[in-house]
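Next up, a chain.

===
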Amino acid sequence: MGPGAAEGSGAGSGPAPLGSVFSGPPPLTVAERIARGKAARREVPRSSHAVFEPTAHRLDPIELLERQAEVRVSELVPIRYGRMLASPFTFYRGGALIMAADLAATPRTGFQVQCCGDAHLSNFGMYASPERRLVFDINDFDETLPGPWEWDVKRLAVSMLIAARNNGFAVDVREGIVLDTVREYRIRMAEFAAMGNLEVWYTRFEVEELLPELRSQIGGKMRRQLDRAVAKALRRDSVQAFSKLSDEVEGERVIVSDPPLIVRLDDLPDPDERDLVKAEVERLLHEYSTTLSHERRILLEQFRLVDLARKVVGVGSVGTGAWIALFLGRDGRDPLLLQVKEAQASVLEEFVGRSDYRIAGERVVAGQRIMQASSDIFLGWLVGASRDYYVRQLRDWKGSLVVETMDPRALSVYGQLCAATLAHAHARSGDRIAIASYLGSGDVFERAILAFSEAYAEQNDRDYETLANAVETGRVSAERSL
């Protein structure tokens, strides 16, 4: 019997179909995938996504936040609460677990994608591709996990509505922004459904190509803000971070402490933690390097570690372990700054099942590589003594737009750009044809998501007030000045 021949095959049976080379059944045809999408409309009507009604057994939002706090750096948790209390918008940014618990009770079509898990509008932005092109994409994957595509869309849409409310826009303007955002997702998904697999995979949103169209859609003030944001992003690299975050002390380059937001390892008050980290660094760096491709490992080996500091990051991530590692290359003016950020279980896991990845850092990296069109060359993971981490460059042309200063037109354009990016991320991993078929060509889905967004924004306001009351009564402590 020749290699690959099926036992018992007859002379006239012919070769096995090429699809059988891969695990699982042969892919569905385009027609079958379109039919799947239309069938889902009958089982889960698009209008059903409009409903958000808190259940009688809805989990206490403060209890959920306290549950997360149990595995975070205790002295940093008040900073997290303080940042969440800045506004209902910042509360929403930190409440991914709260919303995941609520989304678990909402309708779903059953079409799985690699979800971001926290696709609010501030988790999109600019960064450098390995080819040194400025691109726009999703840029936060702490919660990434395979899950319902609808959850990411709802998370984004609600963030647009809350941001519009936060900016003081009129009701009809807010509604238009949400409708524009979700409509763009539907239109883009239809475009990706019509593309070949490789064409979808190679698509990316390069800022240089986007700029003319974006500038034509917004007013002069917003154009100037956009141009400044792009220029600022192009300056934000390891050299710029090196000059801002480090200094020379007794002939050695060290990270400048700014407690409690940045604390050098040598300045940590807990000697046990300090000694543990120091002892682990060499082993961890070696293990991290093995998660990089061979040529990038060679590049990393040309740098030497000179300092390490703990750094507070984001809103939702405050309290998780996060470090910045300073490396130097050929001389004292050749820096590399890496961010070593703790990865915990995704907030989605409680509601869609545990990740297939035992190491949380590997889960984040795998999800990011699936969803992003271009990823950081130093993206990798490591396993510490008691925590998992993922690693990326601290700054590599990273930039974002200030949502709080956007006018209605600019926020609408920005929402559409986020939606196009999200549709592309979902199209890379999910059944884009079935999802596009489900969405159809009308506005039923976007109007349903608008209704959901309005109801959930009200719930977010109530939860925000609940946190404020918890601080006033002393149930939790908040540090509002950092």
